Amino acid sequence: MERLGFNLLAALLLLIGSSGAAWPDDYTDTIKIFREAGASSGFFDNSYGYAIFPTIGKAGIGIGGAYGKGRVYRKGAYVGDTSMKQLTVGWQLGGQGYSQIVFFQDQRAFDEFTSGKFEFGVQATAVAITAGASASANTAGSSASASGGKHDATTAGSYNKGMATFTVAKGGLMFEASIGGQKFTYTPKKRT
Hints:
The chain has 192 residues and is of the alpha+beta class. It has helices at residues 2-18, 24-35, 40-46, 107-113; strands at residues 49-74, 77-104, 117-120, 127-128, 163-179, 182-188. The protein has four helices and six strands; from the N terminus they run αααββαββββ.
């Protein structure tokens, strides 16, 4: 039975992850969504930089996981690549895809994220921008506000330890009451 659960989880992650390949236009489109969505739009003008993930796939049956690839920008310029991995434990069933952006308030926060191995603890929160992205898009379940669609959403978000995170649901259905942090890696852009 345990093996069956693992195989089903692996299949769900593969299915969601296959749609997670980010193409160059995906970054532009995802940035545009966050620029037009409620309070996240104001962060572009006032942040030192950001990491954008066009698609993060998440799935779980008892034990869950999430994975996504992204890019890091400093003062609007692409400077490197990042990936996010998450392992969650608790009651959960289903799969979903979502976009995520992490804003860096200042150089210190940017340097911390790009140090190579950065991790959000289970208390980090992500503001869900669409009504479809429920508290499951929030790693702590503490505070998130959402309304309307992805282009007319109003949100409440602020920096916490120099970083602010927003998510937009893309699809899928996930029932969960779980905990888990997000781990990020960073690779600087190769100079040409």
